[in-house]
User: Fold this.
Amino acid sequence: SFSRNDAKMPTRDHKNRKKRGHVSAGHGRVGKHRKHPSGRGNAGGQHHHRILMDKYHPGYFGKVGMRHFHLTRQAYHKPGVNLDKLWTLVSEQTRKKYAADKDGKAPVIDVVQAGYYKVLGKGLLPKQPVIVRAKFFSRRAEEKIKAVGGTCILTA
Assistant:
């Protein structure tokens, strides 16, 4: 296969120039240089190239699993956010304002508005109550939010 770069190379630099005068140009007299002796591309993967396919590409042929007709990705769309990133969804000054508030008010963090659906439990929360609105909560996330005095509100 030739690429466009081959056209730019001057003829004098081609390897073939060295082979001028040598009858079969390095391709042998007995076997001869024929066009595609074993087929083009991936031909023969289940036949004459089987050993290569089995050795270096196991599992290339065949099917696995069930078919899902009319797969719609939005049904499975459930981006998650961990607790350690929860407070990054509101500004730092909001957090400080509610931390200094003595009335016991808590900020509402709507993760759906930020593009997340599920709150996951990785990381620690600051000891500050917070109201979290989301479509889904993991069990650990809910435990940790309630442990700091916050609440979990499920939205549709």
